[in-house]
């Protein structure tokens, strides 16, 4: 009887649930779980793809698969939000959202934790789910989709050929039934009340594109670690994403740790955006392949065409950050990244693209296809010039450029002073937390 009450609270009265059970991050009760999981047979699903004895646990997924499998499909995680987040109120009539998860040969245990944590953290009956399967190239995978579709509200679509992250997301977005889209990576664990802060901000202003603070799940032991709440997304002229400190003036002006953080770019794997706004702004550049660069294209487009990007400190999602891609790129990793970022630079960066080419000289002369459709889109939407973005959204980029030069120069002097060491540290962190 008590667990039935819990279900009712979770599904029908978000405000009450938020206020009374905000710190609960333990797995759902048995009856609830049964309801959510429908005819899905978890044990058979997980057992269907086990490691072979003596196999390197990092080989296939670039994280410790043995440890991930050992954890099972759910576990308690710490509520990493600032304590004041628990007393923030959200509207009772938040719009529903479709969650779009794209994956390519994801490990079953990480994918299932992503879906189950999301499913039980789901706080509204009208919050729909769509898990959208991206390319499966090996023979073992087709059944993943059929099996996962047995979970309540999960619809799994499988591409006929390998399409990559970008085109798969567009397919998922087109299939979504809710007015708000939530893009989620396939090796995540969502934390307490992760959706409400994001949906609330989008409800208040449909031009906002919002993302959570992305906590770190260790690729070695799967420990859930709180990320700093003082970071935003940045990049250098080679269009390499990095996490960076919020500028000091902005940090000093933050009187309330629950307030949104403006960010020049998003990491790209996890964000919420209104579906109409996503479509109005031209979805994604579907000529980009596999992975990478799409977060710059989307971020420039959102800012320059009338929207904004935010990180919401009261929304937290854990993500397994890896050091290498666990899958291969048909055209090669470097070439694909160059093609995608070059398309972003050519369409959006105006005269500033020269800095991209000087930071990435190998990009010159590499094929990137026709950009006619995207430049036409930019004209149609009457977007602001990149100069405006530089002056109003990311003026620190000039400094980042100068600093990279300083760093490169000082590296030859074996880090004689502390300032250089600080810079080196920032660079190292940026690399290890690249979103893959
Ligand atoms: Mn990822």
UniProtKB/TrEMBL annotation:
Glycosyltransferase 2-like domain ranges (all copies): 98-271
GO biological process, one term: protein O-linked glycosylation
Alphabetical UniProt keywords: Disulfide bond, Manganese, Membrane, Signal-anchor, Transmembrane, Transmembrane helix
Subcellular location: Endomembrane system; Membrane
GO molecular function: carbohydrate binding; metal ion binding; polypeptide N-acetylgalactosaminyltransferase activity
Gene Ontology cellular-component annotations: Golgi membrane
Family matches, as Pfam families: Glycos_transf_2
Similarity comment text for this entry: Belongs to the glycosyltransferase 2 family. GalNAc-T subfamily.
Protein's UniProt name: Polypeptide N-acetylgalactosaminyltransferase 16
Originating species: Gadus morhua (Atlantic cod)
């Amino acid at each position: 009887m008590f667990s039935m009450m819990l279900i009712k609270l979770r599904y029908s009265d978000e405000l009450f649930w938020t206020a009374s059970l905000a710190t609960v991050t333990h797995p759902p009760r048995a009856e609830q779980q049964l309801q959510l999981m429908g005819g899905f047979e978890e044990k058979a699903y997980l057992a269907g793809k086990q490691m072979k004895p003596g196999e390197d646990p990092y080989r296939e997924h670039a994280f410790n698969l043995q440890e991930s499998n050992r954890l099972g499909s759910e576990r308690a995680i710490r509520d990493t939000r600032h304590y004041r987040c628990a007393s923030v109120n959200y509207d009772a009539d938040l719009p529903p959202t479709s969650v779009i998860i794209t994956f390519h040969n994801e490990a079953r245990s990480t994918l299932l934790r992503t879906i189950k944590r999301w499913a039980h953290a789901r706080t509204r009956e009208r919050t729909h789910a769509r898990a959208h399967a991206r390319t499966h190239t090996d023979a073992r995978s087709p059944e993943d989709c059929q099996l996962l579709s047995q979970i309540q509200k999960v619809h799994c679509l499988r591409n006929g050929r390998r399409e990559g992250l970008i085109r798969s997301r567009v397919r998922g977005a087109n299939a979504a039934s809710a007015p708000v889209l939530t893009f989620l990576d396939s090796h995540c664990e969502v934390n307490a009340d992760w959706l409400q802060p994001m949906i609330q901000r989008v409800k208040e202003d449909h031009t906002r594109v919002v993302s959570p603070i992305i906590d770190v799940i260790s690729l070695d032991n799967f420990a859930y670690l709180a990320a700093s709440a003082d970071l935003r997304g940045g990049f250098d002229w080679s269009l390499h994403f990095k996490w960076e400190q919020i500028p000091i003036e902005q940090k000093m002006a933050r009187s309330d740790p629950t307030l949104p953080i403006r960010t020049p770019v998003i990491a790209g794997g996890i964000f919420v955006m209104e579906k109409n706004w996503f479509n109005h702004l031209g979805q994604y550049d579907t000529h980009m392949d596999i992975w990478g660069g799409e977060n710059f294209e989307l971020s420039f487009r959102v800012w320059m065409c009338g929207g904004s990007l935010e990180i919401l400190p009261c929304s937290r999602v854990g993500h397994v950050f890896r050091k290498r891609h666990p899958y291969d790129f048909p055209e090669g990793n470097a070439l694909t990244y160059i093609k995608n970022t070059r398309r972003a630079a050519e369409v959006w960066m105006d005269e500033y693209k020269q800095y991209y080419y000087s930071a990435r000289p190998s990009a010159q002369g590499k094929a990137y296809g026709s950009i006619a459709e995207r430049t036409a889109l930019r004209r149609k939407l009457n977007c602001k010039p990149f100069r405006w973005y530089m002056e109003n959204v990311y003026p620190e980029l000039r400094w980042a450029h100068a600093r990279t030069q300083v760093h490169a120069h000082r590296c030859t002097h074996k880090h004689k002073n502390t300032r250089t060491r600080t810079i080196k540290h920032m660079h190292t962190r940026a690399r290890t937390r690249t979103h893959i």
